[in-house]
Design a protein that fits this description.
With about 325 residues, the protein is of the alpha+beta class. It folds into two domains: about 190 residues, Periplasmic binding protein-like II (D-Maltodextrin-Binding Protein, domain 2, 3-Layer(aba) Sandwich); about 130 residues, D-Maltodextrin-Binding Protein, domain 2 (3-Layer(aba) Sandwich). It is about 45% helix and about 20% strand. Strands 3-11-4 form a three-stranded antiparallel beta sheet. A three-stranded antiparallel beta sheet has the order 9-5-10. A three-stranded mixed beta sheet has the order 6-7-8, covered by helices on one side. Helix 1 packs across helix 11, helix 2 packs across helix 13 and helix 2 crosses helix 15. The chain is globular, with a radius of gyration of 23 Å. The two termini are about 25 Å apart.
């Protein structure tokens, strides 16, 4: 659970207690709940997080009216500031640090801290290349491979079909900042002499290249990130890089990617009106490994984000029941 204590948390806790006490003394039935509007960002993990939270709010707390507003990162942040959006379950903070900090400083939004902070991005090869896979009859082809600095020794295993003098590094997608980062890393690590920089045309092409190689037991060397379905399904080995250093990163990208804080944020006025929702979301913490598994389930079963949310709630009951009081957890479990 999130342990950092901020002043607003005490104020909201007091507000929630007063609201409960007043309702009890008055002998009133609960008043009607307002619509809760989630930021439906374009990637699956964010949408699944929304629906996990929504299921708990609906069946645990009685918030029957849930809405989802699609949008890109900056549009959603602007909507969160105005109150057009109430909840963003996945703010990738470092990707929007300045506008996010401005919104907090202005008092428009409240940062509830990490949803998951163990996300990852970097360069990988299939683990069977290093350790083999007896169940598939695969012998290790690079048993001593550990680091990006070992890759010059193995370029011939990853031979580029369009340039037989080099191996192929599978980069990400045009227009993504990480694509330029990866290109610079190749140069900084001296690997541009050994590998072509192959930029894929889409996310589907990138994940598809890994999936095709893995299913055939073939070499693959490229970039990917988590949480994603492919890293939930395939056992990949992250190559070692020098630890992240802000100065080195700024100079030439010659180190590991920085980790991102992926936080939950809410509109400040919504938080004042709905302290029990904020108290729940403040406890909402997940792990990348859980998301990888859920996303792999989605891909394998052709499941919707609603079905994936139910999968999470059924598979991780001991986890999510710590987010809410026992009576709320009982209501949610009864609805599963």
């Amino acid at each position: 659970m999130k342990t950092a204590r901020r002043p607003w948390r005490h104020a909201i806790a007091v507000a929630a207690g007063i609201a409960l006490l007043v309702g009890t003394l008055a002998g009133c039935t609960p008043e009607s709940r307002e619509t809760v509007i989630f930021a439906d960002l374009s990637w699956d993990s964010a949408q699944v997080n929304n629906r996990i939270a929504a299921f708990i709010l609906t069946h645990g707390y009685g918030y029957d009216d849930i809405d989802y507003i699609p949008g890109d990162t900056i549009t959603i942040l602007q909507g969160l500031r105005r109150g057009d959006v109430h909840v963003n379950m996945e703010v990738w903070v470092e990707n929007q640090q300045e506008p996010f900090d401005e919104a907090i400083a202005a008092g428009d939004i409240i940062d509830l801290g990490n949803n998951f902070g163990d996300n990852w991005q970097g360069w990988l090869v299939p683990r069977y290349m290093i350790e083999g896979d007896a169940s598939r009859g695969i012998q290790p082809s690079t048993p001593d491979l550990r680091s990006v600095f070992d890759m010059p020794d193995y370029w011939e295993l990853f031979k580029d079909p369009e340039d037989s003098t080099k191996g192929r590094f599978i980069n990400s997608i045009p227009g993504w900042e990480c694509t330029e980062d990866n290109s610079q890393k190749l140069v900084t690590y001296g690997l541009d002499q050994y590998y072509t920089d192959f930029i894929t045309g889409s996310d589907a092409a990138l994940s598809g290249s890994m999936a095709a190689a893995y299913q055939r037991g073939e070499p693959w060397f490229g970039y990917y990130w988590a949480p994603t379905w492919v890293l939930g399904k395939f056992d990949m080995y992250p190559l070692e890089e020098p630890p992240f250093d802000a100065d080195v990163w700024k100079a030439n990208r010659g180190c590991a990617y920085p980790s991102n804080n992926v936080n939950v944020a809410v509109n400040a006025e919504f938080a004042e009106r709905n302290p029990e929702v904020v108290a729940f979301l403040d406890n909402f913490v997940t792990e990348t490994a859980q998301h990888n598994r859920v996303l792999a389930y989605m891909e394998a079963e052709g499941a919707t984000t609603d079905e994936a949310a139910l999968f999470f709630l059924r598979e991780y009951e001991d986890w999510w029941t710590k987010w809410v009081p026992a009576d709320i957890a009982a209501n949610v479990k009864a609805a599963l």
